[in-house]
Automatic annotation (TrEMBL):
InterPro entries tied to this protein: Aldose_1/G6P_1-epimerase, Gal_mutarotase_sf_dom, GH-type_carb-bd, YihR-like
Pfam annotation, one family: Aldose_epim
PANTHER family per the UniProt record, alphabetical: ALDOSE-1-EPIMERASE, GALACTOSE MUTAROTASE
GO MF term list: aldose 1-epimerase activity; carbohydrate binding
Superkingdom assignment: Bacteria
Single GO biological process annotation from the record: glucose metabolic process
Protein name, entry field: Aldose 1-epimerase family protein
Length: 304
């Protein structure tokens, strides 16, 4: 029996939820509640498009020019976003993860990022997915299995779906006080600015309409339990939420604009991140893994 091009698939079911996890990139391929999609899916036998559902590690977002200096040594990463000339979304997105724990409602997948040009560190990555009545929970744990300390960051890449229609039709609640502005052409970070009164102020529910977003936000509001919640609702009242804790002080939001009309603005990418774009250069909220040390982060997607 042949394996689909997106890897081995693991179906998870709990109550009204069903999810499918693809082993390549430890990717969330489908997530449904009572048959309603909560994320933009992709076909089992296609190359995963636009990083849909991928686990991003050992950095989320971009390393500008693929170049950075760590512990006094300049490194050059492969430029995996050639149009803009950056290293995009880490090194784990095309690794084939192996299962180490499996149940009807959960799976844990593991892969090792081997030391290589541009990232001379060995890091084991475990991604645990579990479903229950509260939604899909994901936890990423990194362990430095090498002999030198390693820079680290992570995040997911789901495109959330609120219901019928597209991004323009939905209402977003994004409880963030600050946005990282970027250059228009290459999306290079420029400055952290307050969102108050501007086009990126979604602290109160507001229709996305034709707003273009491909920005990182911080200054996140948190509930009594320490979590941040981003909410997306469709006009008919259905919706989806993403919830995470203080391990991710940043979130990248993208309206998924595409030149092809059939693919344009199908879902809203909501990506909790442990660090901002280009953290390998700025050092902002960058996790440093000492040999043998581990770090984790997690998030939940649930239906409304």
């Amino acid at each position: 029996m042949s394996i689909p091009i997106s890897g081995t698939h693991y179906g998870l079911t709990a109550g009204d939820y069903h999810a499918t996890i693809a082993s390549v990139g430890a990717s969330l391929r489908t997530l449904e509640h009572r048959g309603r999609p909560l994320v933009v899916p992709f076909d089992a036998d296609e190359v995963r498009p636009a990083y849909r559902g991928a686990t991003l590690a050992p950095w989320p977002n971009r390393v500008v020019d693929g170049r950075y200096t760590f512990d006094g040594v300049e490194q050059q990463l492969p430029l995996t976003e050639p149009a803009r000339g950056h290293a995009l979304h880490g090194l784990a997105t095309w690794l084939d993860f192996e299962p180490v724990d499996r149940a009807a409602d959960s799976v844990t997948l593991v892969a090792t990022i081997q030391a290589q040009d541009g990232y001379p560190h060995r890091v084991e990555v475990a991604v645990a997915f579990s479903l229950d009545e509260a939604g899909l929970h994901t936890t990423v744990t990194a362990t430095n299995a090498g002999t030198s300390r390693a820079p680290w960051g992570t995040g997911p890449h789901p495109y959330l779906v609120a219901g019928e229609g597209r991004v323009d039709d939905w209402t977003l609640t994004l409880p963030a006080d600050s946005v990282l502005t970027v250059t228009e052409d290459r999306l290079i970070p420029v400055a952290l600015e307050e969102v108050a009164g501007g086009g990126f102020d979604f602290r109160s529910p507001r229709a996305i309409a034709d707003t273009f977003i491909d920005h990182a936000f911080t200054g996140l509001h948190r509930g009594d339990d320490g979590t941040t919640t981003v909410t997306l609702r469709a006009p008919e009242g259905t919706g989806v939420e993403m919830v995470w804790d203080t391990a991710c002080p940043w979130v990248q939001v993208h309206t998924a604009d595409r030149d092809i009309p059939a693919l344009n603005r199908l879902g809203l990418a909501v990506e909790p991140m442990t660090c901002p774009p280009d953290a390998f250069n700025s050092g902002t909220d960058l996790v440093i893994l000492e040999p043998g040390a581990s770090a984790g982060a997690g998030w939940t997607i649930r239906a409304l």
